[in-house]
Amino acid sequence: MQHILGSYFRLLGAQVRSQLQYRASFILDVFSTAFFTITEFGALALVFTRFETIGGWTLAEVAFLYGLVELSFGLMDMFFAGFDPTFFGENIRKGSFDQLLLRPVPVIWQVLGSDLTLRRIGYVFLGLTIFVFAVHFSGLEWTLAKVVYLPFVIVGMVLFFGGLFMIGSSFTFWTVESVEAMNILTFGGSFLISYPMSIYQDWLRRIFTFVVPAIFLNYYPALYFLDKPDPFDFPFIAHFLAPVAGGIVFALALAFWKFGLGHYQSTGN
Amino acid sequence: MKVFWEITKLSFQRQLSYRAATVAGLITNIFFGLLRASVLVALYNNREVVEGLSVQDIITYTGLTQAVIVYLSIFGSYDLMRSIHQGEIAGDLLKPLSLFTFWLAQDFGRAIAGFLLRGLSIMTIYALVFDITYPTSLAQWLALIVTLVLSWLISFAYRFLVNLSAFWSPDARGIGRFAFIIVMFFSGFLMPLRFFPDWVQTLAYFTPFPHMLNTVVEIYLGAVTGMELVKALLAQVAWAVALVIVCQLTLRLGTKRLVILGG
User: Fold this and answer.
1) What is the pTM of this model?
2) Is B253 a domain residue?
3) With an 8 Å Cβ cutoff, are A47 and B43 in contact?
4) How many domains does one find in chain B?
5) Which residues in A lie closer than 8 A to residue B27 (C-beta atoms)?
6) How far is residue B217's CA from residue B143's CA, in Å, rounded to a whole number?
């Protein structure tokens, strides 16, 4: 294991060094990543001059959901960049994935080490800023339980979205091209859980409760942190399922990845 | 002119061949439209009309904005800067029509395909699923056609200009990312501009971006009528002309400093 982690960190180190070579480009990239979040959240914040709430949630409360997703998705995007289906699909297409199969380190760690999009730090930083804003203005009251639970919520989301990236990449073992429909789950999913789940139509919310357990990642934890009543009358335990939901999706993704890897036939370049 | 149409036709046909991508894109656009409609309807919170837009209008707005994503390349395009960086532009400069016209013809074909395949399909699905707003008079339909053509021209000229930055900077991609995110905000793609505070709207109208999308939305929904509508169209014409001229001048400066190594 030590050998594996050693290789992993070495690969990441190389990534970081290479990305920092072009200092100006890197800074521009960091800002442009953050810039989209600024405009998207800014647009929402600005229309609150004409509206009061979203489904009974104030701007600060929505910011709690939004900031936490940005932060977690940004972290995931940084560390799972090697599994970004577009990036990974490119490696399958070019045949460069085959190189990884020849090396004496588990493939999964090599893929994780094959890319680290450091510029996503812009995302993470902005998500954190919005989150801090949310905590300050929503009147959130901290308890020890909440402090302990918060990192688990973030890990849950990182595992969830990382799992989706892995599933998307595994598909390319068969399709070679990245399957665009996965974007609905990754980017659509992160948009979806950035707002209170109560605003969606029943059929949509049920899909994202029972088929894809996204409701437990962010919405239910937020109800707990902000001491809001549960409009769907789930058992109280529902508030604490974030790491479980993320873990299940990640475990399934891992199994699917192994299955796909077993069926991999090179493009033959 | 014949060459222009040939290029348009080829570019159009190329778009038609990406069938799987079109279907996947459609599903994604519809899904995001649905999510954005949910957010806006929740903001309305049973109010019937906000700033002159009814709930029905605002649902239609989410469809319209998704429908024009491909037609107007809302997320930007980076093809020209790639051809400048990689030197392919040398071949394009030898073609029997100007570089601007060549890319215009290409983008025209791409835009028509995007309009038919993505735009019309999205609006048709919206019409089937939701109770949406339609233009009510022949004049409004005609104005819609005119504004759609003008908005495409403004969008093209702006994207062309952004891409020309590749003549000067190796980081043109980063510049492009900024330039296209600004469009999303000031064009009324993220939220209808009339929901923003007045100072933001004033600021927006100093830029060409509202004329790319917001005008189309407002004309479709009947939020601008009469003299206001004529003024809106004239403003679009003015911006289109201005941007095309700036493109030509910038292109001339850019090609002067272009050095291509033979290979």
Assistant:
1) 0.92
2) yes
3) yes
4) 1
5) 181, 184
6) 12
